[in-house]
Automatic annotation (TrEMBL):
Domain Plant heme peroxidase family profile residues, every copy: 31-326
Residues annotated to bind Ca(2+) 1: 73, 76, 78, 80, 82, 93
GO biological process, one term: response to oxidative stress
Residues that hold substrate according to the record: 169
Site (Transition state stabilizer): 68
Native source organism of the sequence: Ananas comosus (Pineapple)
Disulfide-bond pairs as recorded: 41-123, 74-79, 129-322, 206-232
Name of the gene encoding the protein in the UniProt record: LOC109704260
Official protein name in the record: Peroxidase
Cofactor or coenzyme needed: heme b; Ca(2+)
């Protein structure tokens, strides 16, 4: 009897000790690997790229819309394609005002790529929407003239999408606010500047910068100001009015965005501030003078962005339809 008790106590003690030594696993981030699907869906990269090429040939909006979609996905609940979920009660991320301007072409690009992937019998329902979005994003960048890189894969799709979780940078942010928000995700100022270079493609609705036009913000170059005032005569009356984020080469993924900033031709306040603030000007000048330096910093930062909040089978799933939780 006493021996039994002793054994029990020993057992309990070792059990408690084992708990102390190895705490129960929290929902760990996924272990990502560029070769994750090598045996599961060997033709994955070609299937995604084919769909992306087709979408880009149909509309110039596909590339910028997809790149922005990836950013907005990763910053809210991690890179888990939660941005694509449609909830019947309307409480989903994409209906939050900060996401409402995301263009349909980005969602359509991912859905087309998902259909292409699922059309391969070896791949059907085995590749996450989050990974397809990450691959499609790399492809729109490289097919627009930007860098290419191996995309880390193995994310699961999230099951939660709440508009109330959406916190994204504002175009009126100053450098400290930009660094604060990107820093909260473990991204450096250099990452933040390189990622802002995503504004080398695409457009912005006038409502996001008209406060810089009337009266004219002195950091906007006079010629550019005139041009923008013509594009956005009365933004409140014309919600469809827009301007390109990189007026020099709006469809080309290049470093013209940074050369624009040097000339007072950044469209958003959050763009121009990167040159105007002496703490970030050096990096802008480096990226403006050396496109390879920009490309390599962009690839590094995109890879880090792609690791945010990734899900596993514990807290995620492989969504059959990217728009709905299984
Ligand atoms: C640094 C903070 C950022 C702010 C304040 C910001 C803000 C904005 C705003 C206001 C627009 C215009 C949206 C519209 O009119 O529909 C826009 C567009 C865009 N953003 Fe950002 N953004 C930021 C960072 C990023 C990052 C990190 C990326 C990707 C790496 C990105 C990619 C894009 C793209 C590609 C567009 C054009 C979308 C299109 O033409 O459909 N942005 N952004
Ligand atoms: C430009 O940047 C690349 C990549 O960081 C670097 O290898 C190269 O030496 C730089 N070129 C010049 C002219 O500074």
């Amino acid at each position: 009897m006493i021996r039994m008790e002793k054994r029990l106590r020993l057992f309990l003690l070792s059990f408690i000790l084992s708990l102390l030594v190895s705490p129960p696993p929290k929902a760990a981030a996924a272990q990502l690997d560029p070769n994750y699907y090598a045996n599961i869906c060997p033709n994955l990269e070609n299937l995604v790229r084919g769909a992306v090429v087709k979408m880009m040939s149909q509309t110039p909006v596909a590339a910028p819309a997809t790149l922005r979609l990836f950013f907005h996905d990763c910053f809210v609940m991690g890179c888990d394609a939660s941005i694509m979920i449609i909830s019947s009660d309307g409480s989903d991320e994409w209906r939050n005002p900060a996401d409402f301007s995301l263009k349909a072409e980005g969602f359509e690009t991912v859905l087309a790529a998902k259909a292409a992937v699922d059309g391969d019998l070896q791949c059907t329902n085995k590749v996450s929407c989050a990974d397809i979005l990450a691959l499609a994003t790399r492809d729109v960048v490289s097919l627009s003239g930007g860098p290419t890189w191996p995309v880390e894969l193995g994310r699961y799709d999230g099951k939660v999408s709440l508009g109330s979780d959406v916190v994204l940078p504002s175009p009126d942010f100053n450098l400290d606010q930009l660094n604060g928000m990107f820093g909260s995700f473990g991204l450096t100022q250099t990452d933040m500047i390189a990622l802002s270079g995503g504004h080398t493609i695409g457009a912005s609705s006038c409502m996001f910068f008209y406060n810089r036009l009337y009266p004219g913000d002195p950091t906007v170059s006079p010629g550019f100001l005139l041009q923008l005032q013509q594009s956005c005569p009365n933004p409140l009356l014309d919600p469809n009015a827009f301007a390109f984020l990189d007026a020099a080469t709006p469809l080309q993924f290049d470093n013209a965005y940074f050369r624009n900033l040097q000339q007072g031709m950044g469209l958003l306040n959050s763009d121009q501030v990167l040159f105007n603030d002496p703490r970030s000007q050096g990096t802008v000048n480096l990226f403006a003078s050396n496109q390879s330096a920009f490309f390599s910093a962009f690839v590094d930062a995109m890879t880090r962005l792609g690791r945010l909040g990734t899900k596993t089978a514990v807290d995620g799933e492989i969504r059959r339809d990217c728009r709905f939780v299984n």
